[in-house]
Specification:
Blueprint lengths: L4 H27 L14 H18 L1 H19 L2 H15 L7 H34 L7 H32 L4 H24 L5 E4 L4 H12 L8 E4 L12 H16 L2 H8 L14 H10 L3 H6 L7 H11 L1 H45 L8 H7 L5 H9 L2 H6 L1
Antiparallel strand pairs: 1-2
Helix pairs in contact: 1-3, 2-3, 2-5, 4-5, 5-6, 6-7, 7-11, 8-9, 9-14, 11-13, 14-16
């Protein structure tokens, strides 16, 4: 008896939709609580709390009532696309389009790029209304948005251009590796993604990030001296210091007090000194890549190599051929339960790293300015003061402010006794 791959995927998608909707309802209820959490009484002003509460509730309209509708439509569409075999139909349509414009759809790279172009157009169309609402209604209503419609569209255009420039060679390389990889396919793909991530880490701050924000060298002065002294004391190989100006897009702020800035940097250097950056990179080296590279980790590719030639798997989703990209997409759907568990585990690890980095900055003597900086960031950005513990544990990679302040204020003797 064939395993019901499609039915299992659809069943889990619907179960996760119900569970995440339940978490959204819990979080919305937490945001509507009229009082500050006890640890923040006297720390956050009532006026700031009311503004943050209003902003959080308003913003949750996008991620609650409006979000519920969006998610309901999305789950219905995703279910329909899979159940009614729209994906194989679109694959054939993209091949016909490639033929129509004079390209050879029998070349799998060309056919795949034609398919991805259609997917990109579809995603831009379906995501645009929600992005516009978030930026020009929610953010603008609370005084955070500084983007003009022209700048918004320019950013979107730049993002599309970057995808068009980087996507084809990456996709082509993946297809060639799968075609030629043989028994060591998983290792070759993992090495390729490892090299790609290292290259992107180098290229992004130099070539890509300046397309969206202005980078200027931090001028000589007391702040620069304090940062350089801190980096030198930790033997961090600091080469350049830049100030990123995002003020043309948003009024969301960072720390302005020099001691608070240095304290936050001490926290970030704590991640480096404690090897958090390396651990995270090894564990999730594909975190910031686009959709075509989301499942490219060693273990996932190892699993993919076991099922990529499974005729039953492809036929379950309506395919009579076995395209490489489609195999990756189908495999991604079949391991969704594992991915949710993995993401939850990584969030727990990330939260632990944040506590450790805070403790590192505290040991360097920055407890007071770090605490003040975290509070100021929470206040100025109108971040949620009340969070549901279930929602936070499932979604947040950083602990809520209440938990971080409690850890910073905890005496060292208490930790040793524990």
């Amino acid at each position: 008896m064939e395993f019901p791959y499609l039915e299992a995927v659809l069943g889990f998608m619907i179960c996760m939709y119900i569970f995440e909707t339940y978490l959204d309802i819990r979080q919305h209820a937490a945001l509507k609580l009229p009082n500050l959490p006890k640890p923040l009484l006297g720390v956050i002003s009532d006026e700031k709390f009311e503004r943050a509460r209003a902003y959080s509730i308003d913003k949750r309209l996008l991620f609650s009532y409006f979000h519920f509708v969006h998610e309901a439509v999305t789950i219905v569409m995703d279910t329909a696309i899979l159940y009614y075999k729209i994906l194989p139909w679109f694959w054939k349509l993209s091949g016909n389009f490639a033929l129509y414009i004079g390209l050879n759809p029998k070349n799998e790279i060309i056919h795949t790029l034609s398919f991805l172009a259609g997917v990109m157009v579809w995603s831009q169309i379906t995501d645009l209304p929600f992005s516009l609402y978030s930026t020009f209604v929610i953010e603008a209503r609370h005084g955070f948005n500084k983007q003009s419609l022209r700048l918004f569209l320019m950013d979107m255009f730049k993002g599309i251009c970057i995808s068009i420039f980087l996507g084809p060679p990456i996709v082509a390389a993946i297809i060639v590796i799968v075609q030629k990889g043989g028994p060591y396919l998983a290792i070759y793909l993992w090495v390729f993604i490892l090299v790609l991530c290292l290259a992107m880490m180098t290229v992004y701050p130099i070539l890509i990030a300046p397309l969206f924000n202005k980078f200027t060298p931090l001028p000589a002065g007391e702040l620069r001296e304090k940062i350089e002294k801190l980096a030198a004391s930790l033997k961090f190989p600091l080469k350049k210091l830049f100030v990123v100006d995002g003020s043309t897009r948003s009024k969301h702020s960072n720390c302005k007090d020099e001691e608070e800035v240095v304290a936050v940097i001490a926290h970030e250097l704590g991640h480096w000194k404690l090897n958090h950056t390396m651990y995270s990179f090894i564990a999730v080296q594909n975190k910031d890549l686009e959709e075509a590279a989301k499942i490219l980790t060693l273990l996932q590719f190892g699993g993919y190599t076991l099922v990529r030639n499974s005729k039953d798997l492809f036929e379950s989703f309506g395919f009579d051929t076995q395209p490489i990209l489609i195999g990756l997409i189908i495999f991604q759907h079949t391991v969704i339960p594992l991915q949710h568990l993995l993401n939850f585990g990584l969030n727990l690890v990330s939260r632990t790293f944040e506590f450790q980095a805070d403790a590192f900055a505290k040991k360097l003597g920055y407890a007071k300015p770090l605490r003040a900086g975290l509070v100021k960031l929470q206040e100025e950005n109108l971040s949620a003061m009340n969070t549901d513990p279930w929602y936070s544990a499932y979604h947040y990679s950083h602990p809520p402010l209440v938990e971080r302040l409690a850890a910073i204020e905890e005496p060292e003797t208490a930790k040793k006794e524990d």
